Amino acid sequence: MELTSWRDRLKRETKLRVYGALTEDLARKVAQRTGDAAFLSWLSDAGGESEVIGLVRQFVATEVSVLLRVSSLHGPEQGLVELARVRRAVRAALVGWQPTYTDGGEELHAEEVEFRRGQAIAVDPKGVQWWQDVYATRYLITEA
After folding, report:
1. Cβ-count burial of 131 within 10 angstroms (0-12 exposed, 13-18 middle, 19+ buried)?
2. 3-class SS string, 88-111
3. pTM exceeds 0.90 for this model
4. Average pLDDT for residues 85-108, to the nearest whole number?
5. What is d(CA 102, CA 47) in angstroms, rounded to the nearest whole number?
6. Residue 87's closest CA among 133, 127, 137?
7. pLDDT per position as a tens digit, 9-56
8. Order of strands across the sheet that contains 56-70
9. pLDDT of residue 79
10. Helices 4-13 & 76-94, crossing angle to 10 degrees?
11. Are residues 131 and 125 in contact, defined by beta-carbon separation less than 8 angstroms?
């Protein structure tokens, strides 16, 4: 599963800055900016059993982390309202959407994305809230 289609979808459907996984260097750069952002990374992959003889054909369930950075110039109370707004926008962009992926040079569609869970990560001293939502989908792999 490529995350480029996820990134492109969030950039197109939300007003967020969208990045790959949050690294220390990226965290330093982002800390100097204002505005809301999303950081995408794989969280897990789990393959189901193949039921085909002589060929491996299995569904892979994958979870994708969307780490949100939401800031408010109006304090932590307004920050809660803004976090809810950003989460709704991300959920509206992803839930029910079918990401594309490439298998053997062929472009395929995964199953519709579903929401799995969310959790608070941190609130920094400047009132920036960090929240992680996890989304899931399944896609098919086939190997001779």
Report:
1. buried
2. HHHHHHHCCCCCEEEECCEEEECC
3. no
4. 90
5. 17
6. 133
7. 999 999 899 998 877 677 767 766 667 899 999 999 998 888 777 778
8. 17-19, 37-47, 56-70, 129-143, 114-123
9. 63
10. 120
11. no
